[in-house]
Amino acid sequence: MSILVINCGSSSVKYELFDMSDNSVISKGVVERIGGTTSSIKHEVPKHDVYFKKRANAPDHLTAVELIRNVLSDAEFGVITNVAEVTGVGHRVVHGGEEFHESTLIDKTVLKCIQKCCKLAPLHNPPALEGITACMKIFENVPQVAVFDTAFHHSMPEHVYMYGIPYKFYKKFGIRKYGFHGTSHRYVSKKASEILKKPLEKINLITVHLGNGCSIAAVSGGVSIDTSMGFTPLEGLVMGTRSGDMDPAVVTFLMQEEAMSVDDMNTMLNKKSGLLGISGISNDMRDLLTEMHAGNPRAKLAYDTFVYRILKYIGAYAAALGSVDAVVFTAGIGENVPEIKNEIKQQLSSLLKGAEFMSIRTNEELLIAIDTFEVIKRGPQETDTNNGGINA
Ligand code: AMP
After folding, report:
1. Across 234-251, average pLDDT
2. Domain range for residue 239?
3. CB of 232 within 8 A of CB of 266?
4. Which whole-number Å values give the CA distances from 19 to 88, 283, 301, in the listed order?
């Protein structure tokens, strides 16, 4: 029984094939620079010490998926030689809007709903759709499952996800907080309950995902009750290149004063802000730590702003939860920079007395594989969508 996990970006398709008998990785890789002149495929079979990167012809997502099928079924590179052995394909879909509160078997209706959510995630959902339609052709008759980044936060109460703007914009466009990184927050919550040896239903957690994108969630009894990302992944913590929270008037002020267009503003907020914007050096925490330890004040300012925002959110979520059993750090920075965890732990020692502070490696691909396997086992009649009342 093997499950193929597909994660599509605008110019890349990442894939990972899992053996569901022991959740181990059979092979994984990525097709990069799709649509460019220098497309390539990296493929790895960890258990057999196979690794290669080679140039490839991948003008679009369909040819990229075809390439993946071919390496998986090539006896020289893969472990399986018959692609018919793939039990199911799991797709990471960033935005499920208000439609989806759990992973879902993909059919025509689900495809239409994901299409409808493209308006909410114009950068992320269209490539995911391309990946899904490509896999439906290349892995014909293999069940396809969508696993949504937003689904875990579907449990947030109305007063948490509502913004303080006229209600009609919620009804008309679905403008509200959705939250992202749900698969990661869900995965580390489950792991934390195992480490704490307490049932997930009985604990309160604050999960802190610090990668290139950063978000934090308040998880009560295994259910997300609040999270820092919002209508888009821009809200909340200071990130690698995204601003996170700020006074929305800054947007209109700068657009007026600098004659910035909507595109200029989008680029500035998403690609030129955050750690990169404050430091003027890099979006990569490794570079910032090197510069900071060498005495660069802007690197220190970026680091301090980053840490302070996390601290503030943990305090807020401690208030929302009432009590906290553990604060869990994960993703590139959360797993590899213990000084951030230690600094925050020290500052919150009296507020969060008794709470554990831990780092847990996230594994979103594995959770997508497990969900896919479960949804396929359950069959189509059990899958459920919640068609909320908005027109987004
Ligand atoms: P992710 O999006 O989870 O892959 O995380 C990417 C970010 O994690 C990078 O931009 C780095 O800032 C950070 N990162 C990864 N490894 C390390 C490390 N060993 N030390 C410090 N930061 C790291």
Report:
1. 97
2. 199-354
3. no
4. 11, 35, 45
Is residue 277 lining ligand 1, measured as CB closer than 6 Å?
no
Distance in Å, CA 125 to ligand 1 centroid: 25
> Which one of 148, 175, 190 terminates a domain?
148
Could you tell me if 231 and 130 lie in one domain? Answer: no
Q: For residue 80, name the pLDDT band (cuts at 50, 70, 90).
A: low
Indicate yes or no: pTM above 0.90: yes
How many Å apart are CA 300 and CA 274, to the nearest integer?
13
Task: Answer yes or no: is the C-beta of 274 below 6 A from any ligand 1 atom.
Answer: no
Which one of 214, 333, 336, 361 would you pick to mutate in the ligand 1 pocket, going by the greatest count of ligand atoms within 8 A of its CB? 333
**Which ligand 1 atom is at minimum distance from the Cα of 287?**
12
Same domain, 271 and 208: yes
Q: What is the CATH number of the domain that holds 349?
A: 3.30.420.40
The pLDDT confidence band at residue 383, using thresholds 50, 70 and 90, is very low
pLDDT at 381 over 70: no
Does 37 fall in a domain? yes
User: Catalytic site residue 149?
Assistant: yes
Number of domains in the chain: 2
For residue 117, report the distance from its CA to the centre of ligand 1, in Å. 30
Instruction: Name residue 246's amino acid.
Output: M
Confidence bin at 81 (pLDDT 50/70/90): low
Q: Are 62 and 138 in contact (CB under 8 A)?
A: yes
Q: How many Å from the N-terminal Cα to the C-terminal Cα in the chain?
A: 37
Residues 203 and 98 in one domain: no
Which one has a higher pLDDT value, 36 or 329?
Answer: 329
